[in-house]
């Protein structure tokens, strides 16, 4: 977004959040150029990257358009920020994500996009507009209904934190429904295991993602997280961390 179009208090808030959280100047400038006009989201595509980032096997640059069916891969010590419709994704290092190889027919023309995201490796923090999206990992499926979620793949399990909103958690191996979680502010992080584990799902703690990152991603599509809305409940259990 164009920060000059916001009230001075709002501009200062966004800048202070990013700077205090250790975001690089490139990410600060990313928020500043998020739209040419007031309340206009960024153009779909790669907004910022660090290191080796590839789309369908080819190196990409900032501004490269990302389309449904594209596969994004990040190398070691690499990351990227992608806007796709009303959704924004922050991919950590050594990640592989296929964006919407399957679009749900009834929403194929919807700018918000609904369908399937396939995660093969790595970790991803995502904020969604109105959508019916399913994140699929080797161990889990996470049915997103317009929310924010941090997903991380480990050899024997998948970590899923619904930062706010509602999601349906299920086993990707058996298809068994495991739990529907409703979160206001990182309330119900979970580990989801494969079929050889003695448990299918268990409680987890909040790891490897921060409120500052969520604020930054939402700001790119002219939104704020619900925990920043007037009257939102306080949250003190989690000390935010930042990992580039």
Description of the structure:
The chain has 244 residues and is mainly beta. It has a domain at 1-40 and 210-244. It is built from 3 helices and 16 strands. It has helices at residues 8-20, 25-32, 211-219; strands at 45-50, 53-55, 58-59, 71-74, 79-84, 87-91, 96-103, 115-121, 123-127, 133-136, 140-144, 148-153, 157-171, 177-183, 190-193, 201-203. The protein has a 16-stranded mixed beta sheet that branches. It starts with 7 loop residues before the first helix and ends in a 25-residue tail after the last helix.
Judging from the principal axes of the Cα atoms, what is the shape?
A: globular
The overall pLDDT average reads 81
By DSSP (H or I, 4+ residues per run), the number of helices equals 3
C-alpha-based Rg, rounded = 17 Å
Order of helices and strands: HHEEEEEEEEEEEEEEEEH
> Low-confidence parts lasting 5 or more residues at pLDDT below 50?
1-23, 34-38, 106-110, 235-244
Largest sheet: 16 strands, mixed
Return the structural class: mainly beta
The count of β-strands is 16
């Amino acid at each position: 977004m164009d920060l000059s179009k916001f009230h001075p208090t709002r501009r200062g808030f966004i800048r202070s959040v990013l700077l205090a959280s250790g975001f690089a100047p490139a990410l600060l400038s990313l928020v500043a150029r998020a739209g040419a006009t007031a309340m206009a989201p960024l153009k779909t595509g790669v907004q910022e990257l660090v290191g080796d980032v590839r789309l369908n096997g080819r190196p990409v640059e900032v501004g490269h358009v990302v389309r449904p069916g594209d596969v994004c891969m990040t190398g070691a010590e690499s990351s990227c920020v992608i806007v796709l419709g009303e959704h924004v994704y922050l991919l950590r290092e050594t990640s592989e994500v296929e964006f919407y190889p399957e679009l749900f027919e009834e929403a194929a023309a919807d700018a918000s996009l609904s369908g399937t995201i396939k995660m093969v490796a790595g970790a991803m923090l995502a904020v969604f507009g109105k959508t019916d999206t399913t994140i699929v990992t080797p161990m889990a499926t996470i049915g997103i209904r317009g929310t924010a979620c941090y997903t991380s793949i480990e050899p024997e399990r998948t970590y899923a934190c619904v930062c706010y909103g509602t999601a349906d958690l299920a086993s990707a191996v058996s298809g068994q429904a495991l739990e529907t979680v409703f979160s206001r502010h990182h309330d119900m992080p979970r580990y989801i295991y494969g079929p050889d584990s003695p448990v299918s799902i268990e409680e987890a703690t909040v790891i490897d993602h921060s409120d500052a990152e969520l604020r930054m991603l939402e700001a790119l599509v002219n939104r704020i997280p619900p925990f920043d809305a007037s009257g939102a409940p306080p949250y003190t259990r989690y000390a935010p961390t930042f990992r580039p």
